[in-house]
Amino acid sequence: MSSPFKVSASQPGNGSIHLGLLPPSTPRLKTSSYQYPLKLVSPSPSHLPDEAQTLVHTVYLLTYGGGLVAGDAIDLHVTLDATTRLVLLTQGSTKLFKSRSRDIVSKQSMNVTLAPGSALCYLPDPVQPFEESCFEQKQTYTLLPSDKNHPAGNLCVLDWVCNGRPANGENWSFLRYGSRNEVYIGLPAGKRKLLLRDNMLLNDSGVANSITSRMDSQGVIGTLILHGTLLTKLGQFFMDEFKLLPRIGGRKWDSGSDCGDEEVDAAAQMRAVRQREETSAGVLWSAAAVRDCVVVKFAAPSVEAGRSWLRVMLVEEGSVARLFATYPDAIAPSTNMISSFLFPEDIAPPSYVNVAPRRPQRPTIRVVPTPTSECLPCSPVRLSHARSPSAPALLNPTVPTHAKRPSLISLASFSSGSSTCPTTDAQPKRSGSIMRFKSLSLPKEARERERTMKREDRERKIREMELSPIVGEEFWRTGKYGASDEGKGWGYGVF
Predict the structure, then answer these.
(1) Is the pLDDT of residue 306 over 80?
(2) In this predicted structure, what is the pLDDT of residue 169?
(3) Direct distance between the N- and C-terminal alpha carbons of the chain, in angstroms, rounded to an integer
(4) 90: how many CB neighbours lie within 10 A of its CB?
(5) So what's the pLDDT on residue 460?
(6) Pairing with 327, which of 121, 166, 243, 354 sits 20 to 30 Å away (CA)?
(7) pLDDT of residue 284
(8) Cβ contacts of residue 37 below 8 Å, gap of 6+?
(9) How many angstroms separate the Cα of 110 from the Cα of each of 61, 161, 365, 481?
(10) How far apart are alpha carbons 204 and 171 in whole angstroms?
(11) Are strands 14-22 and 26-34 parallel, antiparallel or unpaired?
């Protein structure tokens, strides 16, 4: 008996996404179909805060079981009509399970066609190949010819792979991994011209741990491809920052200046902080311009380090968040759009990215009387900083303000009458707005401990100044706010 239903022409692993325009010019997902093992999830589109008429659609690329079994094949076709914007994400890394033979290869193919004025942002999680897995993928992007109203399409594509499961002892233990990215520009005659081809192949060639020996202790490697007028600033940002990377015989490493004599602006300070973080995290990267495309190559010891570096670069420049997402000042936990890649819930924004500027909190004073058993004849007090936004507490004028342990305190709220102890040697001396206390007779162990405390205090202040470059140098030297510091701040406590 024949089936009354029409035979499906789709094949396992095939999928299709068509983001079109409905009259008058409303973007809608006309087609979103898929077959096992591929699954597509498309939440409601979102409006951009600066462009209320622009709708950004998001589609999550999923696989049943979280990965691809040996022999699985995925073939996805994506079509974007003019002026539409699409974000492709994943909810986790794509796992590549063990293959029984080198001849059994998991494959993934994606063909994207972009009409003039459209934009695609593809930011997946890294591919995670397990031990003895084989995988090949190919992404092809075709940009249709521009018309008189709109330029060619825009691309922001990320392709990266990690070393597997380090917790299970895996370190580039797969058999074969291949990834190819091709960008074509359409011609009026219906043909197309190749703009960029990026090919990465990792093959152990039958020798155990041969890939590990070539990776130089890196845990993730990736490629970021940028193209289009909407992403020109982002591409130029990567090129400019790559030119300013420290090089032997080039620029001054600690400040990013040529000679160190000129004034360093806020951008140079942020760049210096970011470069130090890149060095400490072990991130390596380069950028190159190829036929109207910008190709960024990066490597990091871990996925977290690579993701953090990429997030900092994208957020600092701001084009991706401006074109495809909203800033996270009011993002609900359930809003899992592109902001989940730029600002995941468990990771705070970079310290030097101004997300919600507020006036910095002024330091306050907390006076803690020393226990009687520790008191000297003059009954000293201990002074410590508090993270309260309230006004500084006044010192008790009847209690001597010299410290049992010598310290250097920079406060602007001390009054001249707050020190009334008649002991001359214990009286604080003023030097501008800084109060210096004479050291009392202390044993050798106490003096060593005091020197350690002072050194840690200096290092803490240096770190705070590096992470909060908006506060003027005058504040860190005197504790006073200058006129230029009014209304500035990242919204974090000073101490």
Answers:
(1) yes
(2) 92
(3) 80
(4) 18
(5) 79
(6) 243
(7) 95
(8) 12, 13, 63, 64, 65, 68, 69, 72, 74
(9) 11, 17, 61, 56
(10) 12
(11) antiparallel
